Amino acid sequence: MASLSLHHTPTNPLILHRTPLNLRTQTHKPFSVRSQAAPVLSQDELKKLAADKAVESVKSGMILGLGTGSTAAFVVDKLGQLLSTGQLSNIIGIPTSKRTQEQAASLNIPLSTLDSHPHIDLAIDGADEVDPNLDLVKGRGGALLREKMVEAASSSFIVVADDSKLVSGLGGSGLAMPVEVVQFCWKYNLVRLQGLFKELGCEAKLRVDGSEKPYVTDNGNYIVDLYFQNPIKDGFGAGKEISALEGVVEHGLFLGMATSVIIAGKTGVEIMNK
Ligand SMILES: O=C(CO)[C@H](O)[C@H](O)COP(=O)(O)O
């Protein structure tokens, strides 16, 4: 069985300042070894596979961080199902967005806030990019601020994703790396953000909604999406520089936060632990 690309890149030369982690990996095959033609799973089926695997770590009585996005939605669905059949009880969810709050409430998952529960046992969430050190880009779904607050308050943070999210260096997918900024003089910050990463061929764009109006986060802020031609070499350095800009609220680099990543691909489900 071919292993996922993470196995081939235990040392990421693009991340200069970090000692690569010795990743312990497990692989769970969803298909019979003997089957000649394994069924081709859709991307949604892969997301659900990763989500279901992560929910196996949830125990009754836990305080849970509930992520945002299409993969995290499968986690919330599964939790609702297990609660309704009595296989789980007494869990309390801390949602990372209004969307997730509505979904969880519709499934009768008891909800609370970080103010009332500042210590979370386990958070489960999706990601937009996962690098070999389990560092992440998150926030293409716009929920990065609450996600970062909830996941930072969690004793464990499991990331669930399909294998399209694997990258060798953050920013390397060519897709957006979001930065949440206050509305006031957003253009001033867009220009400053683009200037920070000139040498990476960065292009900064204000995120817009379906009507071409600025996308407004749950916190009333805008998002500037950064598009890189080359991966970020020093994630921690980049994060510090972004955060130092007045008017920047949060960025989508989630560094050193994930305790496990569950990746579903056509070769199976792979669990990578710190
Ligand atoms: O960070 C996020 C939302 O802010 C999501 O976790 C991320 O965008 C992945 O979403 P999906 O599971 O739909 O691919």
From TrEMBL:
<protein>
    <recommendedName>
        <fullName>ribose-5-phosphate isomerase</fullName>
        <ecNumber>5.3.1.6</ecNumber>
    </recommendedName>
</protein>
<dbReference type="InterPro" id="IPR004788">
    <property type="entry name" value="Ribose5P_isomerase_type_A"/>
</dbReference>
<dbReference type="InterPro" id="IPR050262">
    <property type="entry name" value="Ribose-5P_isomerase"/>
</dbReference>
<dbReference type="InterPro" id="IPR020672">
    <property type="entry name" value="Ribose5P_isomerase_typA_subgr"/>
</dbReference>
<dbReference type="GO" id="GO:0009052">
    <property type="term" value="P:pentose-phosphate shunt, non-oxidative branch"/>
</dbReference>
<dbReference type="InterPro" id="IPR037171">
    <property type="entry name" value="NagB/RpiA_transferase-like"/>
</dbReference>
<keyword id="KW-0413">Isomerase</keyword>
<comment type="similarity">
    <text>Belongs to the ribose 5-phosphate isomerase family.</text>
</comment>
<dbReference type="Pfam" id="PF06026">
    <property type="entry name" value="Rib_5-P_isom_A"/>
</dbReference>
<dbReference type="GO" id="GO:0004751">
    <property type="term" value="F:ribose-5-phosphate isomerase activity"/>
</dbReference>
<comment type="pathway">
    <text>Carbohydrate degradation; pentose phosphate pathway; D-ribose 5-phosphate from D-ribulose 5-phosphate (non-oxidative stage): step 1/1.</text>
</comment>
